[in-house]
Amino acid sequence: MELLPAVAGPGVGEHADAAAETACHLYDSVAVGGWSRDAAEDAVEAIETTAHALASTHPRAALVLAPLHAALADLRRQLCLPPPDTAIATGPPQMPRTVGNPRRTRRTQPFGLPVAGAAAPTPAGPPPGPAPVPAPSAPPGDGPASSTVSPSRTAP
């Protein structure tokens, strides 16, 4: 089963190829000359931007790439670089909140945000789930239940 089409959108394949080629040239250049603060910041930003672009390849891609965003944020702190540009993204994607059985119920909004069309939660009331089954209200000895022997009695 193929998840991605054989042909990318206009310019996507060319830009991805150029990014890969540029990354190879960067790797070769670093072996000779080393890093500067601006060069390191530009490289981290390129990786962050590429990761955000890759997030659209699959419904779970953003969650799979979240550790990369965390690692890049830590690298920025270690190198004393400024935080990422918020024009691209405000941080790693949040995990969707799972409510109940994840196969049946899945929130698509991050935790704490209302889901469009969802009913507002009620502040009080019975817990969700099936209603309790009421006990029979007939007194002992009345109706068809009287012909059964209860566990406390023994037959002669």
Structure commentary:
By secondary structure, this protein is mainly alpha-helical. The protein is built from 3 helices and 2 strands, in the order H-H-H-E-E. It has a two-stranded antiparallel ribbon. A hairpin with a 7-residue loop joins strand 1 and strand 2. Helix 2 runs antiparallel to helix 3 (61-78). The model is unreliable at 96-107 (pLDDT under 50).
Q: What is this entry, summarized?
A:
With 156 residues, this protein is mainly alpha-helical. The protein has helices at residues 12-33, 37-54, 61-78, and strands at residues 96-98, 106-110. It has a two-stranded antiparallel sheet with strand order 1-2.
Spans where pLDDT lies below 50 across 5 or more residues = 96-107
Fraction in beta strands: 5-15%
Q: Give a quick account of the main beta sheet: strands, pairing sense, barrel closure.
A: 2 strands, antiparallel
Please report the distance between the alpha carbons of the first and last residues.
Answer: 69 Å
SSE-based structural type: mainly alpha
Radius of gyration: 30 Å
Mean pLDDT: 74
Count helical runs. 3
Sequence of strands across the biggest β-sheet: 1-2
Characterize the overall form.
elongated
DSSP, total strands = 2
- Succession of helices and strands: HHHEE
* Share of helix, binned: 25-40%
